[in-house]
Amino acid sequence: MTIKHWINGRYQDSSQHFLTLNPASQAPLAEVARGEHHDVAAAVAAAKAAFQGWSATAPARRSQIMRKLGDLIARHAPEIASVETKDTGQVISQTAKQLIPRAADNFYYFAEMCTRVDGHSYPTPSHLNYTLFHPVGVCALISPWNVPFMTATWKLAPCLAFGNTAVLKMSELSPLTADRLGALSMEAGVPPGVFNIVHGYGAEVGEALVCHPDVRAISFTGSTVTGNRIIRQAGLKKYSMELGGKSPFVIFDDADLDRALDAAIFMIFSNNGERCTAGSRILIQRSCYAQVVEAFTKRAMKITVGDPMDESSIIGPMISPQHLAKVRHYIELGIKEGAQLLCGGVERPDYAPALDPGIQAGNFVWPSVFADVDNRMRIAQEEIFGPVACMIPFDDEAHAVALANDCAYGLSSYVWTENLAKAHRVAAAIEAGMCFVNSQNIRDLRQPFGGIKASGTGREGGTWSYEVFCEVKNIAISLGQHPIPRWGVS
Q1: What is the CA radius of gyration of the chain?
Q2: CA-based, 20 to 30 A from 207: which of 99, 348, 415, 478?
Q3: Among candidates 310, 331, 308, which has minimal Cα distance to 318?
Q4: What's the pTM?
């Protein structure tokens, strides 16, 4: 199978290609077009040429197209989920039941939003002031490798709904589902040039795209290192940067511990642990620390690691051999730093004989649990992006907040307590873009998504998507009653 660029409403090949591999077996999945500077230039030119017509399209018509695209994604969800699982290693139970259906919801939601874009009025005795929102123009959308299809749609839906045009770059590690998104967009009625896809490597495609002078806005999800480099290189544009995370998951001794354990297990081991909002620093009040650590470890040891196409698998393979090596390195580092490894480790999981022997070549690692972690250890400060939990004890509320904030990142956070006043205090005090109280990460599409500190800048979701995908204009109309200085009149 060969995956081509999608430019100006049709597939276009490249003179060079790269292989994308199945992370569960390391078998080749497809040859993918390896874009170059001229491919980026062609895609941006197509998007720029299409902008005037698309931005002038009535919101009601754009809404119809967005809804139809959502319907097409929902109809093809099993097929898209299968491709996504093979390409990323994310288990089929999550891609098919959560991630791809969520992608359809993104288009349904912004199909409604685009007909309701309104501003504010500020009347004064002398003027009527009001605001208008205009589309930005050509937008660069850069999606990560861990949940590529869903993240691409959460960027594309508001971008197109508000009248912009787009050039999408998927990660070279997980490019396959974008191919279906291009074809489905055309079937839904998106005009040629409004949505374009260029595949390739960051240094060859990503850099050329974000630095192109006709690109007016950048929506990026990925590492903090890459995000900083984009801002340095791209110059004055609109940005949404959703970067790394090392989110605290705070459990007080008055919490519903059974529910807290359910959520803690889910937030570190779902999506193979490869999620920016993972609750990877589990802060537990000392009075219940031993109890929670024991129960958490017992449950982690029962988690099924295996073929991601198997409905019973909870954790699939890491995305690449290089990322597997990184995760293993941090497990080894945690042992050297003096943390207590309670389960997991760097050994390759030993599967049942019924599983395809070829799967043993995959990028698998056991879910690993460290106890007695010091918050200053590297395993507690640096984003591992894998199924590795760090259990950290705290004494009281002030200590919990201090530990939660003693980190470079600030994306998400989780607080578990039955004390309502305490919940409000701690949620407000934690330095993070999001806080979920007595819950896992369940984000309504109307809420802002994004982080602070090293976790990024800007917000997307609901009307917060205006920040990156709209320009706001103030209009002041005189009511003809105010004096105007008459300089230079004798």
Answers
A1: 24
A2: 99
A3: 308
A4: 0.95
Q: What is the 3-state secondary structure (H, E, C) of the chain?
A: CEECEEECCEEECCCCEEEEECCCCCCEEEEEECCCHHHHHHHHHHHHHHHHHHHHCCHHHHHHHHHHHHHHHHHCHHHHHHHHHHHHCCCHHHHHHHHHHHHHHHHHHHHHHCCCCCCCEEECCCEEEEEEEEECCEEEEECCCCCHHHHHHHHHHHHHHCCCEEEEECCCCCCHHHHHHHHHHHHHCCCCCCEEECCCCHHHHHHHHHHCCCEEEEEEECCHHHHHHHHHHHCCCEEEEECCCCCEEEECCCCCHHHHHHHHHHHHHHHHHCCCCCCCEEEEEHHHHHHHHHHHHHHHCCCCECCCCCCCCCECCCCCHHHHHHHHHHHHHHHHHCCEEEECCCCCCCCCCCCCHHHHHCCCCCCEEEECCCCCCHHHHCCCCCCEEEEEEECCHHHHHHHHHCCCEECCCEEECCCHHHHHHHHHHCCCCCCEECCCCCCCCCCCECCEECCEECCECHHHHHHHHEEEEEEEEECCCCCCCCCCCC
* Among 139, 159, 276, 288, the one annotated catalytic: 276
Convert the pLDDT of each residue in 29-48 to its tens digit: 999 999 999 999 999 999 99
pLDDT at residue 352 greater than cutoff 60: no
Both tokens assigned to 350? 């030993």
Using alpha carbons, select from 362, 361, 405, 363 the residue that is nearest to residue 385: 363
* Average pLDDT rounded to a whole number, residues 227-253: 96
Is residue 114 classed exposed, middle or buried when 0-12, 13-18 and 19+ CB atoms within 10 A define those classes?
buried
Give the distance between the most distant pair of CA atoms in the chain: 100
Contact 167, 141 (CB under 8 A): yes
Q: Which of 84, 172, 204, 242 is catalytic?
A: 242
pLDDT of residue 481: 85
Answer yes or no: are the C-beta atoms of 248 and 279 closer than 8 Å. Answer: yes
pLDDT mean over 89-101: 97
What's the pLDDT tens digit per position in 43-75? 999 999 999 999 999 999 999 999 999 999 999
- Write the pLDDT tens digit of every residue in 196-220: 999 999 999 999 999 999 999 999 9
Give the pairing of strands 28-33 and 17-21: antiparallel
pLDDT of 308 higher than 50: yes
Q: What whole-number distance in Å separates Cα of residue 368 and Cα of residue 372?
A: 14
What distance in Å separates the CA atoms of residue 88 and residue 175, rounded to the nearest whole number?
A: 9
471 is catalytic: no
What six digits make up the tokens of 317?
A: 């393979």
* Beta carbons of 256 and 416 less than 8 angstroms apart: yes
Main-chain phi, psi angles of 166, to 5 degrees? -140, 150
Phi, psi of 394 (to 5 degrees): -135, 165
CA 232 to chain centre: 21
